[in-house]
Design brief:
The complex is a heterodimer of chains A (about 750) and B (about 80). Chain A is of the alpha/beta class and about 750 residues long. Chain A contains 33 helices and 12 strands. Chain B is about 15% helix and about 35% strand. Chain B is globular. Classes of the chains: A alpha/beta (about 750), B alpha+beta (about 80). At the A-B interface, helix 5, helix 13, helix 15, helix 18 and strand 12 of A face helix 1, strand 2 and strand 4 of B. Chain B: It comes from uncultured Woeseiaceae bacterium.
Chain lengths: ~750, ~80
């Protein structure tokens, strides 16, 4: 017999963590507000309602050990305050995805360290009562005070749906039902009043719809501890192989499994219990609907007209590409000025520090380490905010689900589903938000395959490197209607897409091989997004980026600074002083300024050459020589591993034009660079190889940090890094060797 | 006749579900059970997946899953 802990499930709440709580935390806990769980189907208007109720009094965190976000807010009344927990959307108490399981565990009080909620606020979309009432019926069995908020009553009105609220309350065993329009605030006062008294409200009468199941649960009650609620006994009978089923069977003793099996055989016969449950519950839902819902003929709304138009294959497809093009364009066009402003602001601040502080490690650390480090974090913010703004708008308007639906067939050819399309497209701006957007993918294998394909998409940080190298080394001649430089850039984008999709396909055929995941999608109606909800979500995502990725990017920027700064050579510094004083004695005016800055840049290049970074470049040069790279290129590539856009600044320093030099000066230096024997370093095969290396390589600490966070393991980020680096190296090697010989 | 072969613009009722597959059970939890009224709304790029309307909800599923749901036209043997 397997060894399984027989401790009651409720004991989890009182485990060792609680004994470590300090005295003042206990006093906080005693005064802590009772918590109310906000439960509803996805897209039921739950989050909008939650934001309406709690405003800015919200906290976002994670459930222990998983990447599911936990949203908690406070709702205040004259003499009370409650904690509201906005749970992930769910359809039923039988969990399908990780988010649904968390939601189930919260309402049943099965999350370690979290109390069972004092009441449930069920959010039901009036236009989707069919699925909404299925969940409400299950929630009634939790034996907790229950309150139903009927949302979208305005949309229901305009499509001619009339609901008999009193009849519904009667059918729900006396549960109070509050119709609201969360976007305008209509009905909110009554809802707030109902929430204020919810923990003291009577528990709903158990729905009588399936005598056999109730009788079977009743039969087990005497043999189980009082801490096991009826709803868990029911779930144990219905959800085979679930955690609850194992627990209940352990309580029943050695023959527990057999007893459960015997009861299942009697109640469900040879049918799967879950199927039988669905038949019974929806039978009840249809009965209730017949009684409480009176539908007038459906009026044509803009939403249904738009949906009907977008349902036709051609407009649907064209619409999809237009939407993607607009998003893509906006991310580039709107973010670029802001990013330039941040970059030049950081550069100005750096110069200000350097000129006003005495030369040395402190001023260099502040200017090139701290300011440049912070700058390299917030420079991502405009893109992330704009991209997320669009994703949230598309999601809340109902378009995102439709895009996943439309593209499902195409994505299936690489082993993924339509739900991977948005993370992939987002990654063209930046893989960080793209990878964060994979949370919508329920299947774990699909999700990881998408996460590993996403960093191949040409992100905006690759663009400056592409632009510099293409402008310097690819001739601007026209090929037919097109420009050769444009064709190379397009080719690099295509290379990223093809490499990413092939990677996903390869992974799905090998390491991530498994049963084909289920594809089912609820397609919400088109509706106008709510401004407050959009802004709250946007703020949350931006803060997560700053906290999680920002700290890593900043730390890495400081490390790269230290590698490039230390050790300092006194000889070079003394030479610089001597040259500069010599120049000051012999030259004046503009000639003097030019000489001074030339000497300074040359000294910086010499310092870099003998720094740890320069030495590392020389150590690894033999490894990169087959790719046609000298130590300078190798050092710049090493410096670029934490953040690829750093390469430009390092190349600027190595080639003694200053880190903030404009690109044409740097390009001229690159064109003139030679090996000791006089051969040019930057030949066309070498440049194309370098571009391919950049297209493939995962040079981004932020992406690695996000992969680590989203997969909850080091295995995947390490694999992604090694795999992409190998691919880039081999690609560059092949191009250089074939092109040169 | 199954959900995979509906004509647009007509109403159907699910008659029988082949519920052995856990994926199909999941679809039943979402409301695709015997007695549910469904309509075909659209097909995606490439003719798959399909979008169905059911009691005001739009639900999309692939043809391979749709085949497990036997239907009759609404009003016939009901």
């Amino acid at each position: 017999m397997p060894v399984i802990s027989l401790s009651p499930p409720r004991a989890k709440v009182g485990n060792a963590q609680v004994t470590r709580v300090s005295a003042d935390q206990i006093s906080v806990r005693q005064h802590a507000a009772a918590s109310i769980a906000v439960v509803g189907n996805p897209n039921s208007g739950k989050s909008t309602l939650f934001n309406r109720l709690t405003g800015l009094r919200q906290k976002t965190g994670n459930y222990p050990g998983v990447t599911v976000e936990k949203h908690v807010g406070t709702v205040r009344f004259d003499n009370a305050a409650f904690e509201l927990i906005d749970l992930p959307g769910m359809f039923a108490l039988s969990a399908h995805s990780l988010e649904e399981r968390i939601a189930c565990d919260v309402v049943m009080g099965r999350i370690p360290g979290m109390e069972r909620p004092a009441g449930i606020l069920a959010v039901v979309d009036t236009t989707h009562l069919y699925q909404g009432l299925y969940l409400v019926q299950q929630l009634m069995e939790l034996e907790l005070p229950l309150l139903v908020a009927l949302t979208m009553t305005d949309a229901a009105d305009s499509s001619g749906i009339r609901i008999d609220i009193e009849a519904l309350e009667r059918r729900l065993g006396g549960v109070k039902v509050c119709p609201v329009v969360a976007t305008t605030g209509q009905g909110m006062a009554a809802l707030r009043a109902a929430i204020a008294t919810l923990p003291d409200a009577p528990k709903p009468a158990l729905p009588t719809f399936w005598e056999e199941l109730s009788a079977a649960s009743e039969e087990l009650v005497p043999d189980l501890p009082a801490t096991v609620p009826r709803v868990e006994i029911e779930r144990a009978l219905i959800d085979l192989d679930s955690e609850i089923a194992t627990e209940v069977s352990n309580y029943l003793g050695d023959d527990g499994a057999q007893r459960l099996a015997a009861i299942r055989q009697r109640v469900f016969g040879s049918e799967p219990p879950l199927a039988t449950e669905a038949r019974h519950r929806y039978g009840w839902v249809r009965e209730v609907l017949k009684e409480v819902q009176h539908s007038a003929p459906t009026m044509t709304t803009w939403s249904s007209r738009l949906a009907a138009f977008m349902n036709r294959p051609l407009p649907g497809t064209v619409g999809l590409f237009v939407v993607m093009a607009i998003v893509f364009q906006a991310v580039f066009a709107w973010a670029t000025p802001m990013m330039d402003a941040i970059e030049s602001g950081a550069a100005m601040l750096g110069t200000l520090l350097v000129t006003n502080l005495p030369d040395g490690a402190v001023s260099s650390f502040l200017a090139d380490g701290v300011v440049a480090g912070v700058g390299s974090v917030i420079v991502f913010l405009p893109q992330i905010i704009i991209l997320f703004l669009f994703i949230i708008l598309l999601e809340d308007s109902g378009y995102l689900a439709r895009a996943a639906y439309l593209m499902d067939r195409a994505m299936r050819s690489v082993g993924l589903s339509g739900q991977s399309i948005i993370p992939m497209v987002s990654s063209f701006a930046c893989a960080v938000p793209g990878i964060m957007a994979t949370r919508v993918i329920p299947d774990r294998r699909d999700r990881i395959a998408t996460i590993l394909a996403a960093p191949f998409m040409t992100c905006s940080a690759r663009l400056p490197v592409y632009a510099l190298l293409i402008a310097a080394f690819v001739p601007a001649q026209s090929v037919g209607w097109f420009n050769l430089q444009g064709i190379v850039l397009f080719g690099l984008y295509m290379l990223g897409i093809v490499a990413g999709l092939l990677t996903a396909l390869l992974l799905k055929k090998t390491a991530l091989h498994g049963p084909k995941p289920m594809f089912v999608l609820m397609l919400p109606e088109f509706r106008l997004p709510n401004l407050q909800t959009v802004l709250m979500q946007l703020l949350g995502r931006a803060l997560i980026f700053l906290k999680r990725a920002g700290t890593v990017i900043f730390a890495v920027a400081v490390v790269v600074w230290a590698l490039a700064y230390y050790p300092r050579s006194d000889v070079i510094a003394a030479d610089l002083d001597q040259q500069q004083s010599l120049a000051a004695a012999n030259l004046s005016g503009e000639a003097l300024d030019q000489a001074l800055s030339r000497f300074e840049n040359e000294a910086a290049a010499a310092q870099l050459e003998q720094s740890w970074l320069g030495r590392a470049g020389k150590v690894v040069e033999p490894a990169f020589k087959p790719l046609g790279w000298d130590w300078k290129v190798s050092a710049a590539v090493i410096a670029g591993f934490p953040a690829r856009e750093v390469v430009i600044a390092v190349l600027g320093t190595v080639y003694a034009v200053g880190g903030a030099a404009d690109e044409s000066t740097l390009a001229a230096r690159l064109q003139a660079a030679t090996w000791p024997d006089g051969r040019a370093v930057y030949t066309l095969p070498m440049v194309i190889g370098l571009l391919i290396f950049y297209a493939c390589c995962l040079q981004c600490a932020a992406t690695l940090a996000v992969i680590r966070r989203e997969t909850n393991s080091w295995q995947w980020p390490l694999f992604a890094w090694a795999y992409m680096t190998t691919l880039g190296y081999v690609g560059a090697l092949l191009v250089y060797q074939l092109g040169t010989n | 006749m199954t959900l995979a072969s509906l004509e647009r613009g007509r109403k159907y009722v699910i008659q029988n579900v082949n519920s052995a597959d856990p994926d199909i059970q999941r679809l039943m939890v979402l409301g695709l059970v015997e007695g549910a009224e469904v309509e075909l709304a659209s097909a995606a790029i490439g003719g798959d997946p399909l979008e169905f309307r059911m009691f005001g909800n739009s639900i999309s599923l692939r043809r391979e899953h749709a085949r497990h749901f036997a239907v009759t036209t609404a009003g016939e043997g009901g």
